[in-house]
């Protein structure tokens, strides 16, 4: 299955992914009206003063799915996507998934008069993850495992060349 | 292989699903004492608000059993298990089964859940006190509460509080009676309790703390009242002499493992059924999971009951792996974990709130205006407890560190920072 992969060395912390995620899920052209109402499902954290994007891994054994007591959060057997959007009406905002997720990538959201949990759904309604499209540096990519392995080799080769170039 | 699972709840369903995944050919039978397909016990309190559709209670679709090839026997309350002969006897006869109400098994999972504790109170037997253990219980409360105006909930734990909020939502006058000095005594520390208590009272629910119910009596002239109104209320008598009128009484004094059908001494039971690292009981080929099990708490290292949904599911899955012959060692879980929301205040609490006789460090983030209170408890550089109120972001990360017993010496000052997150502790989890 295709996953969202992060190459933190390439991240500049521009926040484009966060904005794109919020806008795409709120279905809004503009950012200001949805900035505080639509939580981002991709997070930018700082480790040793460097930005690190963090997003759901759509685990093979998802703790959020095991913890979900309404049957809302499921892992789709075909696509591998872990989401409560398949049966969002079942979500009652009990926060079991927030408690269970060791990555901290599920957030509460006020949705009209009720509260629901939201997390990365790989933009399944949209077709292609908005965060990836918006990333100007290639720090987040949407690939399967083999593709990503190849991509990483390529990156390290490039950086080797750069380093050698700098030494001459 | 013929697997039988006693119990159609979180642990039983999780085990059945996993068994089917591991072995497409085996026979899986679930025996349920109730008559409903897999529903969520955690939603029972929501159901009595009258604002929840019945279909939302079911967390698996209608064709679930058929699709997974699981035989489900409803209304089959187990009354005995003969561990030697490997035969289960159930209360109701079944025409589908050769031996009437007998079921044979190769491997058995006991996942019969828990049942409400009903403390002995004078007069309680004669009154129609309610409790919230099964879907039928909830349906009865919802139906009978239509006629009731004043409802008294005895017990200020999770079930009591959630029941109170939902009955209040349904337009009832609700009073909670709690014998301790504060609500959610087992899950929260004092400050968090007070925040929730204020929320309860601001909502309009009456709260009586430090009070014991000594008797449930009928008011004088209740017979006559019944003739005229078709309805008679009870009087709840407290230890200080107060007499509170109630049209309906709901007992929420905790729960205990449902083990009434175990008649054999071979099965070791302490607080619950004892299991080894492979979820196997002291009897060969008999496994147990969920609320009935006594398991080791990852935080305290002691044997405890852990009647919560996520742990029941995980135990059920581990039991399934081992029943199917794939040895999979169980890693200890945090016994006490609770997530909820009361009056717009989301809350998550895990682990312990005090460790008697031990020196613990407290890290606190308290912002009264936002009703935000977050606290992490650390003993010898290991997180042993947490409560997040108002802001529950990253609660799971703290929980993961707690479960792993990770040494947080270098990061303990950052745990409650606004920009704390998984990335910072990735190497520890």
Provide structural commentary:
The complex is a heterodimer of chains A (168) and B (429). With 168 residues, chain A is of the alpha+beta class. Chain A contains five helices and eight strands. Chain A has a two-stranded antiparallel ribbon. Chain A has a two-stranded antiparallel ribbon with strand order 2-3. In chain A, strands 4-5 form a two-stranded antiparallel ribbon. The termini of chain A are far apart. With 429 residues, chain B is of the alpha/beta class. Chain B is built from ten helices and 26 strands. In chain B, helix 1 (10-22) packs parallel to helix 8 (309-323). Chain B is globular. The model of chain B has no long low-confidence stretch (mean pLDDT 93).
What key attributes describe this structure?
A: two-stranded antiparallel sheet; 8 strands; B: 429 residues; alpha/beta; five-stranded parallel sheet; 26 strands
Q: Major beta sheet of chain B, specifics?
A: 5 strands, parallel
Give unreliable regions of chain B as ranges: none
Q: Compute the average pLDDT of chain A.
A: 93
The separation of the N and C termini of chain A measures 42 Å
Shape of chain A: globular
Biggest sheet layout of chain A: 2 strands, antiparallel
How many angstroms does the end-to-end distance of chain B come to? 38 Å
What's the rounded overall pLDDT mean of chain B?
A: 93
The overall strand count of chain B is 26
Strand content of chain B: 25-35%
Give the number of helices of chain B.
10
> What proportion of the residues of chain B is helical, as a percent range?
10-25%
